[in-house]
Automatic annotation (TrEMBL):
It comes from the Archaea. InterPro entries: Yip1_dom. Keywords: Membrane, Transmembrane, Transmembrane helix. It is a multi-pass membrane protein. The chain crosses the membrane at residues 12-43, 63-89, 101-125. It is found in: Membrane. It holds the Pfam family Yip1. GO terms for cellular component: membrane. It comes from Methanosarcina barkeri MS. This is Yip1 domain-containing protein. Residues 11-118 form the Yip1 domain.
């Protein structure tokens, strides 16, 4: 009679866990190949000579340290070490300088941040809101 806080959806718990266990590794593998394609193109633009297979290999090695990311302080250290492994791995696989490897590794992140800033500026420009939450025109266009 009483279905609890989650209603009748609580019976889907096992199914949700099962699907997560199946989908998460598949999505992780697919994301490694997509990330490798993006980095391979960036390294080629920067003059790299490595192969796509080598890019997939060093990304796989570098992301292995993320197994430790769930530990509070060790996770931060492992994340920084993972970025270092990306830089050094790309430097060796694609035979580029460390500066070019840093650019190749950090460029996708900087582009995403830039796109987020542009989107937020667009959102503020067309929403009628000022930066501090006050209504600039009294009308909100969402």
């Amino acid at each position: 009679m009483y279905e609890g806080m989650y209603g009748s959806a609580r019976g889907l718990g096992f199914f949700a866990i099962l699907m997560t266990v199946i989908i998460t590794p598949i999505a992780g593998i697919i994301s490694i190949f997509i990330e490798a394609a993006i980095l391979y193109i960036i390294y080629k633009i920067l003059g790299g000579t490595g192969s796509y297979e080598g890019t997939v290999r060093f990304i796989s090695y570098a992301t292995a340290v993320l197994v430790l990311s769930w530990i509070p302080i060790v996770g931060w250290i492992a994340g920084i070490y993972g970025i270092y492994l990306y830089i050094v791995g790309g430097m060796h696989v694609h035979d580029v300088s460390m500066a070019r490897s840093v650019i190749a590794v950090l460029l996708p992140t900087l582009l995403i941040i830039l796109l987020m800033v542009i989107f937020m500026a667009w959102l503020f420009a067309f929403s009628g809101l000022s930066l501090f939450g006050f209504f600039s025109t009294g009308v909100i266009f969402l």
